[in-house]
Model the fold of this input.
Amino acid sequence: MPADLFLPPAEFVKSSEALERGCSLPEAQSYTRWLATHHYENFHVVSFLLPRRLRQDFFNVYAFCRWADDLGDEIGDTAESLRLLEWWRGELAAMYEGRATHPVFVALTPTVERCGIPAEPFADLIRAFVQDQTVNRYRDWEGLFQYCRYSANPVGRLVLYLCGYSDERRQRLSDATCTALQLANFWQDVTVDWLKGRVYLPLSLLERHGCALEDLAARRPTPAFRDALREAVDKARGLFLEGLPLAGMVDRRLAVDLELFSRGGMRVLEKIEEQDYDVLTARPSISRTERAGILLRTLLRRGGAGGFAGLAARQAKPPAPPTP
Done:
């Protein structure tokens, strides 16, 4: 695959040459590796804590997710996004029928076969991105959780499949963690989502506390808004606590990553509380120092001295950057 065809999704779909050109498995893997490492939102799950043998598989799954996400959010036209997402769904079906031609699916095929990944989590993610094109409000918690079931939970299940876990108990715990992470992100980015025309705080929650949507538009952190967000933060925290046992049921390296996500998400909730639930005038964020502290505490809990030794060794000799 020529270097000039290493394009992000929104540009790739505009290139007839890229769409029509076939590629070998090594070329396809180079593309997914490039896509995972050349973006402002790199796939953080592919961290130095994961075994090297799993990285290409994670790159391949990330590439699928990135494509679906960009077809939904980076095209700039709802009708075209819906058309392209249906095309992407067709490419997914073609892969499971043994007819993969797109580089993402050529690379993903051996990953799916080796890890026994069913089509459902991939199809669920596409469904969520389709829903994003047409739904921008949720009436109640049930509706929001149903959205998270398609938009967030499949990612955790894919990670479990990649690491060799497919049982229902671990998947349920992963679902709790992924939904909690999605909610924490929503509560952190209320104003960002508002600018996109989206409100993820359930309307019934806002109404029960007497909070009007106009307060979000005007960025007024009224007592009613703070009360509603307090309840929302408590809901997310409960899900984080529900999912935490998963870290004790997986390989130590994956356990560290899982706990990092959970502790980081819970720290976001704490930052919201420290701002007295005012996320409308200032977005809560975690500093580099705080992130380092979370990492060190997690390594102490999950890795002990061996975890620090492994981290030091990997930091001393980082892997060579992938090249197309």
